[in-house]
Amino acid sequence: MFQENNPALTSWLDVPENNDFPIQNLPFGIAKYEKGPLLSKRPGYQAVSIIGDNVIGLAVLHELDYFRDIQLPEGIFEKEYLNEFIDLGQPVWRAVRKRLSELLRKDNHELCNNKEALKRCLYNVHDVVLTLPVKIGDYTDFYSSREHATNVGSMFRDPKNALMPNWLHLPVAYHGRASSIFVSGANFHRPKGQMLLPGTTDKPVFGETKALDFELEMAFVIGKSTKPGESVSTHDARKHIFGFTLFNDWSARDIQRWEYVPLGPFLGKNFASTMSPWIVTLDALEPFITTAPKQEPDVLPYLRRPDSNGAFDINLEVWLQTTGKEETKICMSNFKYMYWTIDQQLSHHTINGCNINIGDLMASGTISGPTPDSYGSMLELTWNGSKPLILPGGLQRKFLEDGDKVIIRGYSQKDGLRIGFGEAKAIVLPAV
Amino acid sequence: MFQENNPALTSWLDVPENNDFPIQNLPFGIAKYEKGPLLSKRPGYQAVSIIGDNVIGLAVLHELDYFRDIQLPEGIFEKEYLNEFIDLGQPVWRAVRKRLSELLRKDNHELCNNKEALKRCLYNVHDVVLTLPVKIGDYTDFYSSREHATNVGSMFRDPKNALMPNWLHLPVAYHGRASSIFVSGANFHRPKGQMLLPGTTDKPVFGETKALDFELEMAFVIGKSTKPGESVSTHDARKHIFGFTLFNDWSARDIQRWEYVPLGPFLGKNFASTMSPWIVTLDALEPFITTAPKQEPDVLPYLRRPDSNGAFDINLEVWLQTTGKEETKICMSNFKYMYWTIDQQLSHHTINGCNINIGDLMASGTISGPTPDSYGSMLELTWNGSKPLILPGGLQRKFLEDGDKVIIRGYSQKDGLRIGFGEAKAIVLPAV
């Protein structure tokens, strides 16, 4: 176990109970400051971490020489994205997180007693604008929840043969659009496009989507590149992963249904995706690794898991807030339900020699659980609109309406330790 | 007409007959120099153009103040990619091409008589290493050749209903992998993956692809970004396009066939794509705009073409060279066969508000013509391996074998003017 993950650690900074960001988390993000200078320099970007409600400026700590024992280039924490920092390698990320943990510990006074430094490097989270933390070169979306694939197959094909023949043999995936991945809080307009009216099969109409949906997902960020022709084994996969975020793969079901055969989803999904601003490191999640679902039939050798512990126990929630109303929790799922593990996903992705780059994002696909309240999309929760969601006050929803805000939250919890992810949220704006 | 396109123009530099790069072309590319200094600076990259066999260093011309009447930032031609140059906008690309045309004209002596300058800015094309000219953020592959879609549908579904119901209503497309787009000359290893053995339906085996294919395509480079939520009309589409390259979307048909339902191609294609190093500007192709195929049924209003001239008359050829043998031409097609025009492709891509960025690549999909010798893939040329290609000397090919080199060439020709694209070529190396 990493000593930074010790549940007994506490900080001289206050962390409220059930906060997502105790001293054991210390995720990485990017803050933008326009009114500057947070640093003694021009406005720009700064790599940051967070503990409780306190955002910590890593560029300031670096400038003040608090990372003196780590080989860090000048200005490494003043980039628009974390990619160059990630490119320094796993030993460096680990050293920075370890050092942050040291500096924030109750019994450490190096930073705690330096009032001038604190004034410059600590900000209240509500005063900080968090931006997309990585430059995403390529974005891949998997389809790795058996429950989700079964639900979709049951609805649109045959409940008795809900899974396609390939589904149990490989982690199905497709390439998505990187340009339209936005950070939490970036709202987007309801998309327009071609769709069929009910009862028609080949005369599309043009209009606003009437079946706008969310997809509850998580995503991992690539931390180590590969060269063309190189493959990553399931055993080595985690060495290539920097960390995790929450992810919402917004979908327009009617547009998607008309366009997707035979080459897959395109305009039904590429208008917007939302990711949470904090990348929780794989290291911080180590205490929550757990048994992955058994796989039957056996997978091909290149997909065999290094051990039975390939899943991560991460509670996931979806909250819906309609205009002027309170938030309502509409889904409770868990990342551990995933049939295909991240090791298998990455191994499959590279088995043909496809090269991956630092900052690439690999999303899980919708994470549905076994019970109806754990379904990770409106499509499944309302069974394609046939059983509308009833919200407090009697409001109904088949799909999302303008003004609806969807918030994804996630956290791991065990033995008094809680590692959270914050939020991935956005509001559906009316069509342009 | 742009005066740079006048067929009567000639240069003081020699251009061999039927060369792809007369003074009327002047495409853009990037050269890498490791042994430097071509400039009086450190080794690195330089934006270049070409006339005949002479590569022209734009950074040197800029340094020597030959672009003095154009607003160009310092160092703009010394970047690894053309993106920042493209970001200066269409008036700037046009001004640079126009100025190059002036400097190279027979009656202009500004550069011609400056022996010191010539020594520094002119290189023989065989001495220059050309690299990927743009940083590709997102790569989209369309499926816009009716003949190709009909051939594929006839082979794998029903010849009487070869086209899917959506095909005549929208330009079908999918997102591909940007990281594995390589410049011409970058060879790649035969991919491995899951596939079904003939006669089986659900017991995949693992191995090297036995159905490696090329796809004859062209691709356009985005020259002007859009914001999320913004759409580009068919009328404005070309303002967002910088230029064209040749493109080969290598495909492993057996891997693709097993994986692609329901989310589209993934490992069957993302191991490698090849693009030609020169981006021929849309302006240089203006004389070759021609009538696009009639569309029946009528398309939805947002897809209506601004006029009937939406196609480009570009001859396309595929040459195959097996180990130790001569090149053989195995396909002759034309870009004008495309059912969906580039204006329609871009308008469709953005109709849902999907944002596009400078450097994004939009490929056409396989460009097949009406006759069997114009089919743009081995799949079609050999009708899924059932009619092997017979090469000179009696060699046969169902799909590509190790050591095979595929070369795509393309050029427009009319009234004594020829605008060519050079080559997109690569050799299939044995599996890793």
**Largest sheet of chain A, if any?**
8 strands, mixed
Total number of domains of chain A: 2
The share of residues in extended strands of chain A comes to 25-35%
Oligomer: homodimer
CATH architecture of the largest domain in chain A: Alpha-Beta Complex
Radius of gyration of chain A: 22 Å
Unreliable parts of chain A: none
Terminal-residue CA separation of chain A = 51 Å
Percent helix range of chain A: 10-25%
- Mean of the pLDDT scores of chain A? 96
**CATH homologous superfamily name of the largest domain in chain A?**
Fumarylacetoacetase-like, C-terminal domain
- Overall form of chain A: globular
CATH fold title of the largest domain in chain A: Fumarylacetoacetate hydrolase, domain 2
Beta-strand segment tally of chain A: 26
What top-tier CATH class of the largest domain in chain A fits best?
Alpha Beta
Number of helices of chain A: 8
Structural class of chain A: alpha+beta
